[in-house]
């Protein structure tokens, strides 16, 4: 089992460094016979040959999975014929808008559009006067471009970051009488996060580093200026400021230790459920709650998956080797987002958590 997961994860990761995606159909066609030959050679007690076919089959499955996922994302990108054209879209704001002077930048989930470009996820800039809130449903007239970045060696790969975030196009909202609010968001998670941010802004208005509190509580670093962020980058502490796997790991550990200790004070509770299992359940619940509070970004998704795999195995009284738990978490993360290894945060998350 572990051998197959290692081969699969290796196949997914290696595809990240290919100059272009290979066709996934031939890879899958080659993988299936390899896995079939594995069973046949095992039946004949030829373990070495069976192992080689097993590695080859799962490695090809990893390549095919990454290629299929990447091809699906590329097909969802804005067609070249729509670049620079005005499009009418209806959808919801799915992130906390980042405010800088007159600019408001946010993620927008398209539900309907005038050119059959839905469902898609956009990164939009808004220069209007209306205050935008997470969770709101709007009708916008937008002008879009395909995701792209600079090809500077050693620089930040902006296009890869957009792909990781699932952004299919980016652009800005055009001034138009058609732009109007359709729904205020109700009790949606993003709406609650927005309201909590407003309360935190009021509560920390007089604090010198209230922006850091906001970043640690909600994963919103819009209040951190360029000069301050440069200081964090130069000192190597920028990954500590924004919610990441390290923070989710701390919350899950705190929930585990706290519930484990309190649970032991009641003999009746311990007879119903061992304290360690109660702590494991609390760790999963705590990490999920904090991840949702921080917007369930990719780093928090990775961290939650890792915590859930490790703790749920303990909760169901399974004690596999540490390497198996690690590989299981890695496999789930790569199934969710095969391009995750591009980011340094992917490796830091696994080390930290």
Could you explain how this protein is built, in words?
The protein has 353 residues and is an alpha+beta fold. Helix content is 55%, strand content 13%. It is built from 14 helices and seven strands. It has helices at 2-15, 24-43, 47-75, 158-164, 189-203, 210-218, 226-234, 238-241, 245-263, 267-272, 275-293, 298-315, 322-336, 344-352, and strands at residues 86-93, 98-100, 103-113, 120-126, 137-145, 169-173, 180-183. A five-stranded mixed β-barrel has the order 1-3-4-6-5. Helix 2 (24-43) packs antiparallel against helix 3. The protein is globular. The two termini are 23 Å apart. The mean pLDDT is 85.
Q: Could you say which structural class the secondary elements and strand pairing correspond to?
A: alpha+beta
Strand content: 5-15%
Tally of DSSP β-strands: 7
| Largest β-sheet summary | 5 strands, mixed, barrel
Q: Please state the average pLDDT score.
A: 85
Overall shape: globular
Separate helix tally: 14
Instruction: Work out the helicity level.
Output: 40-55%
Measured distance between first and last alpha carbons: 23 Å
* Order of H and E elements: HHHEEEEEHEEHHHHHHHHHH
Report strand order across the widest sheet: 1-3-4-6-5
Radius of gyration over all CA atoms, rounded: 23 Å
List low-confidence stretches: none
